[in-house]
């Protein structure tokens, strides 16, 4: 017996883009929050966040062992994914 293909199994209703998009192949963190993110954030939005996060880490010289840096990035991630105003790298300019 073969399983029927279910396209919905590979998509999520992305909280950033407010539409069905391909989901992340794996949770980004090995915990409940990672599972929640995989179920509510598209792979596209997550990849965009990773680019923003890298710029914030580099520009602000953040150390990932610093609890304050982790807290800052967590706050910015949630704002980014919820389409709220978030901290952007100084070199960042919006696309026109």
Automatic annotation (TrEMBL):
> PANTHER family in the record, alphabetically?
FE(2+)-TRAFFICKING PROTEIN-RELATED (PTHR36965)
> In this record, what's one Pfam family?
Iron_traffic
What does the similarity note say? Answer: Belongs to the Fe(2+)-trafficking protein family.
Keyword vocabulary terms for this entry? Iron
Q: What is the species of this protein?
A: Psychrobacter saeujeotis
Q: What is this protein called?
A: Probable Fe(2+)-trafficking protein
Matches recorded under HAMAP family:
Fe_traffic_YggX
What is its biological role? Could be a mediator in iron transactions between iron acquisition and iron-requiring processes, such as synthesis and/or repair of Fe-S clusters in biosynthetic enzymes.
By its UniProt entry, which NCBIfam families does this protein fall under? PRK05408.1
